[in-house]
Write a structure and sequence with these properties.
6 helices; binds 2,6-diaminopimelic acid; DAP_epimerase_DapF; DAP_epimerase_AS; Diaminopimelate Epimerase, Chain A, domain 1; about 20% helix; 20 strands; single chain
């Protein structure tokens, strides 16, 4: 499937020289471009993992400026842009297959994103950067990942965790990103956005922010809904959040040794495997689908 980005619709390609374009429905985005510049279109790719969706750009040529957070925000906008929970750049990195640079939808360069990590691995394989296994670098350090024979299923090793804090009844831990984990009843009807926002903007977390996961046990694992910082809304799944829930629930149940925890998110199923030895959680793997949705062209 091909998608063509809005800029082409807003600019007369026949114009010579610079034209300033303001979109009609405007939220104030301006574009300054010329016919020549319009020839320079860059390919973007859209992927999703359990409904957590991302724009991915192959930036091994360095043409996308890492500091251009306004552009990231615009591309992630669901009305004025492509629409995504986050944007990733695939960059070259010495000693690794590639580097993953992750931004939240609000344009801030975020912490680790688990579903994003799985999606960029699928992308790297799709464009021929890696085979079925990889070692890549992310903001929280090196990660190993493997594509399974099962189509679009990626297993991603996460950073070790050696501390789970408490905030009242809730669990607070960092699985590459900071997470708050709270058990609730009747999660399907729970006001995730309102309650999640209250916690995220409470005195304890306002400055740095936190991702807020609400969890309810199910026959087979847990049902999880997450309010994500940086998106400032509920997303359909959160990989580091699902991981945080699995670790917190193991601590709560007093389980030790090798543990496997299925997690159901609104957008799909994830599986978390890890080893627990007291407060030490190692060999943590986040597993789930990572699927190509479409690609298109953008000008910047
Ligand atoms: N959706 C992501 C989490 C992004 C983290 C971000 N929202 C933050 O902590 O700022 C995931 O699958 O792990």
């Amino acid at each position: 499937m091909q998608a063509c980005f809005f800029l082409l619709n807003n600019v007369k390609v026949a114009n010579i020289g610079h034209v300033k374009v303001k979109d009609g429905i405007s939220n104030g985005y301006d574009y300054l471009c010329s016919a020549n510049e319009l020839m320079e279109l860059h390919t973007f790719y859209k992927y999703q993992g359990a409904g957590n969706d991302f724009v991915i750009i192959d930036n091994r040529n360095g043409l996308f400026e890492r500091e251009n957070t306004g552009l990231v925000r615009r591309l992630c906008d669901r009305r004025f842009g492509i629409g995504a929970d986050g944007l990733m750049l695939l960059q070259g990195a010495e000693g690794y297959d590639f580097e993953m640079v992750y931004y939240n939808a609000d344009g801030n360069e975020g912490s680790m994103c688990g579903n994003g990590g799985r999606c960029i691995v699928a992308f790297a394989q799709d464009i021929g950067v890696i085979g079925s296994e990889t070692d890549f670098l992310a903001v929280d350090g090196p990660h190993h990942a493997r594509m399974h024979d099962r189509v679009g299923w990626v297993s991603l090793q996460m950073a070790k965790v050696d501390h789970i804090g408490r905030d009242g009844d809730a669990y607070v831990l960092d699985t590459g990103s900071p997470h708050y984990v709270k058990m609730v009843d009747d999660l399907a009807k729970y006001p995730v956005v309102a309650e999640g926002r209250d916690i995220r903007y409470s005195d304890s977390y306002r400055d740095k922010g936190i991702n807020v996961n609400f969890v309810e046990p199910e026959e087979d694992g847990y049902f999880v809904r997450t309010y994500e910082r940086g998106v400032e809304d509920e997303t359909l799944a959160c990989g580091t959040g699902a991981t945080a829930v699995a670790l917190a629930m193991a601590a709560r149940a007093g389980k030790e040794g090798p543990i496997e925890t299925p997690i159901r998110a609104a957008g799909g199923r994830l599986n978390i495997r890890f080893n627990r030895d007291g407060n030490r959680f190692t060999e943590i793997f986040l597993e789930g689908p990572a699927v190509f949705v479409f690609r298109g062209e953008i000008a910047w």
